[in-house]
Design brief:
Pfam families: DNA_gyraseB, HATPase_c. It is an enzyme of class 5 (isomerase). Its cofactor is Mg(2+). InterPro entries: HATPase_C_sf (IPR036890), HATPase_dom (IPR003594), Ribosomal_Su5_D2-typ_SF (IPR020568), Ribsml_uS5_D2-typ_fold_subgr (IPR014721), Topo_IIA (IPR001241), Topo_IIA_B (IPR000565), Topo_IIA_bsu_dom2 (IPR013506). Belongs to the type II topoisomerase GyrB family. With 310 residues, the protein is of the alpha+beta class. It folds into two domains: 184 residues, Histidine kinase-like ATPase, C-terminal domain (Heat Shock Protein 90), CATH 3.30.565.10; 107 residues, Ribosomal Protein S5, domain 2 (2-Layer Sandwich), CATH 3.30.230. The chain has six helices and 16 strands. The strands form three sheets. Strands 1, 2, 5, 6, 7, 8, 9, 10 and 11 form a nine-stranded mixed β-sheet that branches. Strands 12-13-16-14-15 form a five-stranded mixed β-sheet, with helices on both faces. Helix 1 runs antiparallel to helix 3 and helix 2 packs across helix 3. The longest helix has 21 residues. The protein starts with a helix and ends in a 14-residue tail after the last strand.
């Protein structure tokens, strides 16, 4: 649960990247185990939300399911928990601070256990745009530990960089005397991830096969590469969320791959009697590493634990 707080805030920044407004996200583990997440997106809207009579940023950080509903050209997809993420992080923190760079101004507001400490205020000017959120997890709720695992955070952030090609994600650990910083940026996206996963294996073909397409508000990316191993490793994602149980997009991938192999075998691998080898429908692929990324502008049908896309 502790690390999931980070993912929920990072997801908001990823949304801005997916909408085409952000290319850099920075995550810092600060002394005392507070977390700072900053991006160079548009900045969370600060206009008064008519229905609530409060600034949009305050509504997003205090009301469930409020995220991603403000301003023109909103988020294309969402990897968070159906819009509840930021407000839940706020409620589970002893203190949360938000800095918004927008409209050539720097806005600030603080919260204590989800309740605004004061109204949103202008505290300066800014020629840039973006959002910074700092939160302090509540030790009364997270009683087991407040210590963040740097390697765990770095591994997931690297995965997010692979899944969002061209995006730079940086993580810094400021808790030690000498800060540790890692930066992730992959122009090849999931294709680069397949190469990374196969780095210690003998590959059958040097370049991974890569397919990318958009249709009816759905974006699909597939990258695969055969290797000298014996098992298949297929990694499925929906809106950047990993699925341990696969799902319809993984089933579709296996079906399509089987059909391509069978069509090729029928055309080129017939024996003297005209018989061809044939894979069973959706046969388990072997000796292959593959990544599947499904991004939907609609609401994909998955449970909040994100185990399987239906």
């Amino acid at each position: 649960g502790l690390h999931h707080l980070v993912w929920e805030i990072v997801d908001n920044s990823i949304d801005e990247a997916l909408a085409g407004y952000c290319d850099t996200i920075k995550v810092t583990i600060e002394p005392g185990n507070s977390i700072l997440v900053e991006d160079n997106g548009r900045g969370i809207p600060v206009d008064i939300q008519e229905k609530m009579g409060r600034p949009a940023v305050e509504v997003i950080l205090t009301v469930l399911h409020a995220g991603g509903k403000f301003g023109g050209g909103g988020y294309k997809v969402s990897g968070g928990l159906h819009g509840v993420g930021a407000s839940v992080v706020n409620a589970l923190s002893t203190k949360l601070e938000v800095f918004v760079k927008r409209n050539e101004k720097l806005y600030y507001q603080a919260y204590h256990r989800g309740v605004p400490a004061a109204d949103l205020a202008v505290i300066g000017t800014s020629e840039e745009t973006g959002t910074m959120i700092r939160f302090f997890p509540d030790d009364e709720i997270f009683q087991e530990t407040l210590e963040y695992d740097y390697d765990l955070l770095a591994t997931r952030l690297r995965e997010l960089a692979f899944l969002n090609k061209g995006l730079t994600i940086e993580i810094t650990d400021d808790r030690a005397d000498k800060p540790i910083t890692r930066s992730f940026h992959y122009e090849g996206g999931i294709k680069s991830d397949v190469e990374h996963l196969n780095r210690s294996k003998e590959v059958v073909h040097e370049e991974p096969v890569y397919v990318h397409g958009n249709r009816d508000g759905i974006e699909i990316e597939v990258a695969l590469q055969y290797n000298d191993g014996f098992a298949a490793h297929i990694y499925s994602f929906t809106n950047n969320i990993p699925h341990q149980g696969g799902g319809t997009h993984e089933t579709g991938f296996k079906t399509a791959l089987t059909r391509v192999i069978n069509d090729y075998a029928k055309k080129f691998w017939s024996d003297e009697r005209g018989a061809t080898a044939r894979c069973p429908e959706r046969c388990p692929p072997e000796r292959m590493t593959a990544m599947l990324s499904y991004k939907s502008h609609h609401n994909p049908n998955f449970c909040r634990t994100k185990r399987k896309n239906k």
